[in-house]
Design goal:
226 residues, alpha/beta, 6-stranded mixed beta sheet, binds zinc ion
């Protein structure tokens, strides 16, 4: 499986001209094998152009939640007119989409629209995608133990900040580090995304800090193969 991060920022990143260095980030979105798009946000086309990805390859769209940094109806329409199909998911759904089996779990995130996290398997490889969301829910933990994902993408919106009220819907870095300690036996690789512009410093510092814990800090354009 190949995962390309089209955007790795939280909703406070407004600048579409993100650089691959990670110093600037687009809104959160990721693409599997160039065909399955997670979150059709408003910056998707800018990212596809920047990373030289052909929009016509995208066949399937799935969406974690309706927040405007993740879901843009104009993006959906443009992708549909290029041949993609949007699949709707609620908590507990399991669907076969092309070569992928996609299971959805309720995410611990703002409830204005229900958030789902995805376990996506293509046979040999499995991805757990948990944006946006704070502490994982018990059902997710049980699913992780069952599926043993090769890669988990976790929310790290709040950076290295203590005492922020948003911990009830997003993680800070200590929360990610703490969860990794418990999940290590079941997940091969850990990665963080959805970094806030205002709550994070420099990407290089983030990479250095997370490397100590064997956690990858995503940046726009990063491709992971597993
Ligand atoms: Zn978000
Ligand atoms: Zn959100």
């Amino acid at each position: 499986m190949k995962l390309t991060f089209l955007g790795t920022g939280a909703a406070d990143w407004q600048d579409k001209k993100a650089k691959e260095s990670g110093e600037l980030r687009r809104f959160s979105s990721a693409l599997i094998d160039d065909v399955l798009l997670i979150d059709p946000g408003p910056h998707v086309f800018d990212a596809l152009e920047a990373f030289g990805i052909d929009v016509k390859k995208i066949r399937y769209i799935i969406s974690t939640h309706d927040h405007s940094d993740h879901f843009c109806i104009d993006t959906v329409k443009r992708l549909e007119s290029a041949g993609a199909v949007l699949y709707h998911f609620s908590e507990g759904d399991s669907k076969k989409i092309g070569n992928y089996t996609v299971n959805a779990y309720g995410g611990n995130h703002a409830t204005c629209a229900k958030t789902v996290h995805f376990m996506i398997a293509d046979g040999p490889d499995t991805l757990f995608y948990a944006l946006d969301g704070a502490w994982l829910c018990y059902e997710e933990y049980m699913a992780i133990k069952e599926f043993r994902p090769d890669l988990a993408v976790l929310d790290a919106t709040i950076g290295d900040v203590d005492g922020d009220y948003r911990i009830f819907e997003h993680n800070n870095l200590n929360m990610v580090i703490e969860m990794k300690k418990s999940l290590d036996p079941y997940i091969k690789k850990f990665c963080i995304s959805h970094m806030s512009k205002n709550l994070h410093g420099d990407h290089t510092e983030l990479v250095k800090k997370m490397r100590k814990h064997d956690i990858i800090a995503a940046y726009d354009g990063l491709t992971l193969r597993f």
